[in-house]
Design a protein that fits this description.
It is built from 16 helices and 18 strands. By secondary structure, it is α/β, with parallel strands linked by helices. β13, α10 (326-338) and β14 form a beta-alpha-beta unit. The protein is elongated, with a radius of gyration of 26 Å. It has two domains: 20-215, YjeF N-terminal domain (Rossmann fold, 3-Layer(aba) Sandwich); 233-501, UDP-N-acetylmuramoyl-L-alanine:D-glutamate ligase (3-Layer(aba) Sandwich), CATH 3.40.1190. Bound molecules: ligand NAX and potassium ion. Potassium ion binds next to β5 and β6.
Length: 502
């Protein structure tokens, strides 16, 4: 689990390493630049011509060291220093002088003095030390870089982006790839600011592990290697009743596919017994497409209106394709007051709660809500930006003792203990109908198997994204659809079991 630190904490980590390793700050800069260059060269074909843009701080110092290392590796490099009339930081000046020993620097006092004539731009103007939005000369330089057709690779952070807040005033480099040092910054994980980062990779620059052990964090990045594979152990003498009894309540006229997707995902995620409660319209398709599922039929033909005998289940997953009939809203109320184990609440179930917010107070503790941003806004109101939304999610999870899964590129899992985990798996091909229904099934199956709901949500989201990545490798992002996730789930679980190698 990676702790996502603030800019101030990162700076402290840097200083801690310098003092306790010990290592000089210029050698640490050299090590960071070597790590950047190694990854850059491993992903670069041929010998592209590189334009580098350096600023006055240590990010600029990295830029000069990177420029020198690239020349030593046989690349042609054009190096610009943006002159804001500021004194160079001590290490930037040292790195600049080392570069001058082997090549020249174009000093840029006005934007029209910037030279960009290569194939790739490396942005080392500002990093985590940005202390005000990029305006004036910085703004003009960034504008020229963003207009250029060259690929842009940011050193540590895109210039103009703050590390730990969403302040999008001023101009910001729109990077294609950001090679960041040691760990991702908070702003990479939030939709509005993450847009500027492009793809990102964190390179290990050997910052001191001792610092992390002591330092507390508000946010974490949950990785595949954080999944405890013993969660999925099966006992030789288990029978199906031991592996969890799941009830999925889903589907309405025209939306029966959602019920199928979540039900099948629950079975593929290890549920021992699965019952789907659906309106009559779905009886034949469900029984034919998913013979492993037991079907509980609603009295209504087109929508869910009534559920009996929920006590026999370990978990209820409710919402996919449910529709918005008021009688279905009554079912929610009945369920929340009669079932005292966790529920997984998704899609139209969330929209029905948004119409009658009193229902929020009836949801059993430890239940998992899985809204996307639209559903979240309907339930809890709009926020100014993604970071404010995450803080709100955290407060609600603690206050109502619920697990909230805010779905997005880096899905956020907020747990009743106040922790926030960002997910690290998945891809944009998964932004398509039905993928959320699959997630409901996965998390429901885990809870039914006795895994606590916070862990079920974190691990479920990670496995879901992992299946998405496997599916992307097979079918690509464009063709990816929710059924491909179902096909990829077995491989994702096998990977967890073999994950000693990760
Ligand atoms: N923390 C770490 O682990 C390491 C950090 N290193 C590098 O150091 C960077 C941080 O260095 P610094 O703290 O020196 O900060 P930066 O290099 O990010 O920028 C600070 C400089 O830019 C100026 N500045 C800030 N905002 C400005 C604006 N809007 N317009 C004009 N000038 C502006 C400041 O006055 C200062 O001179 C990291 O991003 C990384 O690239 C690496 O060298 C090595 C290890
Ligand atoms: K940068």
């Amino acid at each position: 689990m990676i702790k996502v630190l603030s800019a101030e904490q990162i700076n402290k980590w840097d200083l801690f390493t310098i003092k306790n390793e010990p290592i000089s700050s210029i050698d640490l800069m050299e090590r960071a630049s070597e790590a950047f260059v190694k990854l850059f060269l491993a992903n670069t074909k041929g010998k592209p011509k590189v334009d580098i843009i350096c600023g006055p701080g240590n990010n600029g110092g990295d830029g000069f060291a990177i420029a020198r290392l690239l020349i030593e590796n046989g690349l042609k490099v054009n190096c610009n220093l943006i002159d804001f009339g500021l004194k160079l930081s001590e290490d930037c000046r040292k790195s600049y002088r080392r570069f001058l020993d082997i090549s020249q620097v174009n000093i840029v006092k006005q934007a029209n003095g910037l030279i960009l004539n290569g194939d790739i731009i490396i942005d080392a103007m500002f990093g985590s030390g940005l202390n005000r939005p990029a305006t004036g000369l910085a703004r003009e330089v960034i504008q020229l870089v963003n207009q250029s057709k060259s690929k842009t690779i940011a050193v540590d952070m895109p210039s103009g982006l703050f590390a730990d807040k969403v302040n999008l005033s001023g101009k910001i480099i729109e990077a294609d790839w950001t090679i960041t040092f040691q760990a991702p910054k908070l702003s990479f994980l939030i939709p509005e600011s993450g847009f500027y980062v492009g793809e990102w990779s964190a390179v290990d620059i050997g910052l001191h592990a001792g610092f992390l052990e002591e330092e507390s964090a508000n946010y974490f990045l949950f990785e595949k290697s954080d999944i405890d594979c013993s969660l999925f152990d099966r006992n030789k003498f288990d029978h199906k009743g031991k592996n969890g009894r799941v009830l999925i309540v889903a589907g309405s006229l025209g939306k029966m596919g959602a019920a199928y997707l979540s039900a099948k995902a629950a079975l593929k995620s290890g549920a021992g017994l699965l019952t789907v409660h659906i309106p009559r319209v779905g009886y034949v398709p469900m029984q034919t497409s998913l013979p492993e599922a037991m079907v509980s039929l609603d009295p209504e033909h087109d929508f869910v209106s009534k559920i009996d005998k929920v006590d026999e289940f370990d978990v209820v997953g409710i919402g996919p394709g449910l529709g918005m009939n008021p009688k279905t809203g009554e079912v929610l109320k009945q369920l929340f007051t009669s079932f005292n184990r966790p529920l997984v609440i998704d899609a139209d179930a969330l929209n029905l709660i948004a119409l009658d917010k009193e229902l929020l107070n009836l949801i059993p503790r430890g239940s998992v809500l899985t809204p996307h941003v639209g559903e979240f806004n309907r339930l809890f109101g709009k926020c100014d930006d993604g970071l404010e939304r995450i803080e709100k999610v955290k407060l609600i999870a603690v206050e109502k003792q619920l697990v909230i899964v805010l779905k997005g590129a880096h899905t956020v899992v907020a747990t009743p203990d106040g922790e926030i985990h960002f997910n690290s798996t998945g891809n944009s091909g998964m932004a398509t109908a039905g993928c959320g229904d699959v997630l409901t099934g996965i998390i429901s199956a885990f809870i039914a198997r006795g895994i606590d709901s916070s862990t079920s949500a974190r691990v479920g989201v990670c496995i879901h994204g992992w299946a998405g990545d496997i599916a992307e490798n097979t079918v690509g992002k464009t063709a990816l659809m929710a059924s491909d996730l179902l096909c990829a789930l077995p491989q994702a679980f096998c990977n967890v079991k073999d994950s000693d190698f990760i």
